[in-house]
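Minutes, project check-in
Item: structure for the 225-residue chain
Input as provided by the requester:
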Amino acid sequence: MRVKERKDKTQQGVQHRPLRRFVYRVLMALIRVFIKLLFGLRVRNRVNVPLRGGVIIAPNHPTYLDPLFIGAALPRYVSFVAKRLVFRIPVLRTFLWLDESIPIREFSADVGAIRKCIRRLKAGDAVVIFPEGTRSNYGHLRPGLPGVALIAMLSGAPIIPCAIVNAYPAWRLSAPLPRPHWRVEVRFGEPINVEQCHGDKRDAILDDVTRRLMHIIRQLGEDEL
């Protein structure tokens, strides 16, 4: 019975996908105007993000507004990997449904979420995964976790490093609300392909990919992260 229910939900999700994506694009067009007016959003090297095909976008995570900054910076439909806790917030639940976000458990290897990411990437979707695993403290870059590298290895999708710059002053950790009129910039790096990384064993390759990813993000931030 449970298997049948899951199949029914999957079929319903596929049927609703065109509507979801249409509403997402309309909503994101409005959000893009809002973000540009409030934060003067600028985008560098958008050309590094392919318009089609499975790709992982891996940004730093200084504020709660980061999904809006990334969504506004890109013309293509993107989905996010988000903590399960976020799906319980009514205000965010609709947006998470529209962009087909993937819930993930914290502090554990969530095999189900990893499989969903791989399926979506192999289907040609763009998936945003924050390699730090959570919001950073005071805008400083945390060490990267190996999840992004693992999903890239298993799916064959390239990783696009991304730096969200000057966002933390717009919404500091202690502030209840964001402060507008900060010049936020989203910068995309060149793709990382796991096949080009070195190591005799899987763990060594994952470490190499993760170190390279975080190094590029820091470089994109020009030492501001």
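Outcome recorded: Helices lie at 2-39, 66-73, 90-98, 111-122, 147-155, 202-220.
No further action items on this chain.
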